[in-house]
Amino acid sequence: MTGVTDIPRIEMRGVKKAFGSKRVLEGVDLTVAKGESLVIIGGSGTGKSVSIKTIIGLIEPDEGDILIDGKSILGARGSSRDALLSRFGMLFQGGALFDSMPVWRNISFRLLQGRNRLSADDARDLAIEKLRRCGLGPETADLFPAELSGGMQKRVGLARAIAAEPEIMFFDEPTAGLDPIMATVINQLIREVVSEMGATAITITHDMRSVVEIADQVAMIHQGCVQWHGPVSDVENSGEPHMDQFIHGREDGPIEAVR
Amino acid sequence: MWALVRCIWKKRRLPILLAFQSFLAAIGAAVLGLCATTGSLAIFTGASVMHVFRPPWYPAEIGRQLLRIGYFSLPVVGLTAFFTGAALALQIYTGGARFNAEAVVPSIVAIGMVRELGPVLGGLMVAGRVSASIAAELGTMRVTEQIDALTTLSTNPYKYLVAPRLMAATLALPVLAFVGDIIGIMGGYVVGTARLGFNPGAYINNTWNFLTFEDISSGLVKAAVFGFIIALMGCYQGYHSGRGAQGVGRATTNAVVSASILILASNYILNEMFFAS
Q1: Cβ(B223)–Cβ(B198) below 8 Å
Q2: Residues contacting A252, CB < 8 A, separation 6+
Q3: A19 forms bridges with which residues in the sheet?
């Protein structure tokens, strides 16, 4: 951990969210210190993705508050929201690459918008540099997303997430659907870029290897609440039955396994 | 008879009341659903129109959409207009022959194409082609989280995706309708001169002399409204697409159906506004 201060970089206070009659978040309290890498684990449909989408502002919570550097970001509109979003970078589960544009435009998309936008040549050079950082050659720059394998799409998604060097990064299931070797490569890339940039990161995953390789802190969400939150070194000895059952993949325990 | 009804009522009162309650609940749910959709569409329309007039604009995206919606729809609109004009000339000729009014073919073809068939049929053809394409594209973007990705990259999806399509369709449809009008009149001319024995010069003179500025302008205004409707319904259905292939498929169907119905309904309203007096 680096640069930890008293004021957390990200804080969720009693965040609740329901979709119709389905209550997804039932009062999530979570803090992430500056420069820390938090990994959120939990079963499918327990509210992990909804949690990070409420932080980014893609989903508005019904109750509670979300603070960045101690300031509430709920209700941010216009330029203040733009300023906030410019501090975020996100790798989506399926990559979410724009299939109508080549890889280099995907990566430098944000840098080609706004008043201080880069020229196309500079943006392309920057995209190639980010591709190289993520282990892909310059020949990838002119391909379209549909021409890439799953692992390459993840790397391009990662390159896009880090292109503007954001302070806060979100990774949604970064290793889902990848073979174990590619999963390790992606985990290491995430760890490296987060450490290099000194960014604060939140990662969602089911993959316990990702937890070990990426996390400083681990939080487990179950039924819309944080069941356990602690350093990665304590995961094996958390003493929390939900956590124990999840990390060991046991069928018996407080988490109901639906067959 | 009355005694039988009373007997049934006494014995089966509860199931009958429950069935009636279910019937009312189904009607209520449908009405609430309609109100919710209307409200949601109104909010979407308001937000979209607001973003059309507020910077930043994306000229490259607007140009791309003009090409897709306008230029690439030309063959469909042109062919539709040509055959419609040709068929109209034949119909008017055979119909007019019943009361010795064959000479009105050029003027009726021109007025019919410019005022009504050019914009309406062109609009319906473009609705089938463009509205479906927009809904499928935005629906897929929604399902694959590309719309969320746009937001995280500090880009408003309304400005980047919806506003350029609305602008392009509203601008392109009058041009398409105008080209369709000319091709439709040409269709009538070809049938009139080659098949029905009209003198080419007289046919063109009759067409030109009977057309007024109001005929042409009303058709173009209608086309602009239809263009707005086509893009709006495609964007709305795609933006609110359900999950998976089925959700995108439903959004595509809904876009074409709703755009077509709204085109026909708004055509009647616009006709009332332009020609009622």
Answers
A1: no
A2: A245
A3: A22
Local structure of residue A167 (DSSP, 8 states): S
* Window 90-119 of B, Cβ < 8 Å to A: none
Name residue A17's beta-bridge partners.
A25
| Angle CA B236–B54–A116, to nearest 5 | 110
**Residue in A with minimal Cα distance to B148:** A58
Closest residue on chain B to A108 (Cα): B153
Residue B264, number of CB atoms within 10 A of its CB: 13
Look at the block and give the residue holding tokens 């019943």. Answer: B98
Q: How many inter-chain contacts (A to B, CB under 8 Å) are there?
A: 46
Which one of A79, A91, A109 makes the best mutation probe of the B interface by having the most chain B beta carbons within 10 Å?
A: A109
Task: Render pLDDT for A70-116 as a digit per residue (tens, 0 to 9).
Answer: 999 998 887 888 888 989 999 998 889 999 999 999 999 999 987 78
A255 φ/ψ sector (left φ>0, alpha ψ -120 to 50, else beta): beta
Q: Helix or strand or coil: residue A70?
A: coil
Q: Hey, what CATH class is A1-87+168-174+197-203+216-259 in?
A: alpha beta
Q: Is the peptide bond before B55 cis (omega within 30 degrees of 0)?
A: no
What's the whole-model pTM score? 0.86
What is the gyration radius of the CA atoms in chain B, in angstroms?
25
> DSSP code of B117?
I
CB B153 within 8 Å of CB A84: no
ipTM value > 0.90? no
> How many angstroms separate the Cα of A139 from the Cα of each of A102, A145, B59?
11, 13, 29
Q: Does B155 touch chain A (CB under 8 A)?
A: yes
| Angle, in degrees to the nearest 10, between helices B213-239 and B244-275 | 160
Contacts of B151 in chain A (CB under 8 A): 56-58, 85
- Do residue B154 and residue A89 have CB atoms under 8 angstroms apart? no
